[in-house]
Amino acid sequence: MTSSARARALVAGYCALLTMIIVGPLAGSGYLLLRDAVSTPRSYLTDSALGLGAAAPRAVPQDALLAVLSPVIDGGILVKAILIVALWSAGYGAAVLARRFVSASTGAQLVAATLALWNPYVAERLLQGHWSLLAGYAALPWTGLAAARIRTATGGTEPSGTRRFGFAARRGTLGGWAALTASFAAAGLTPTGSLLAAVIGLALVGRRAFLPAIVVWIATCAPWLTATALGSGAEPSDPAGVSAFAARAEPWLGTLGSLAGLGGIWNGEAVPASRTTPLALVGTLLLLGIVTCGVRAVWALGRDGRALLVIAAVAIVLPALGATSWGLAAGEWLMVHVPGAGLLRDTQKYVALAMPAYALCAAAACRTVATASRRLLTDGQPDSDPDADSADTEPESVAHSATHRRDFGIRATATLFILLITLPLADLAWGVGGAMRPVHYPAGWQQVVDHIDTPGDIAVLPGGMFRRFPYSGTAPVLDPAPRILPNDVLQTGELRVRGYAVTGEGNRARTVEEALLRGAPATELAAMGVGWILVERTTPGPLGTSENTLATAELAYRDADLALYRVPSLTSLDTATPAQRRISTAAHLLWAGLLLAGLIAAALRPYRTPLERRPASRIVT
Question: How many domains does the chain have?
Answer without folding.
Answer: 2
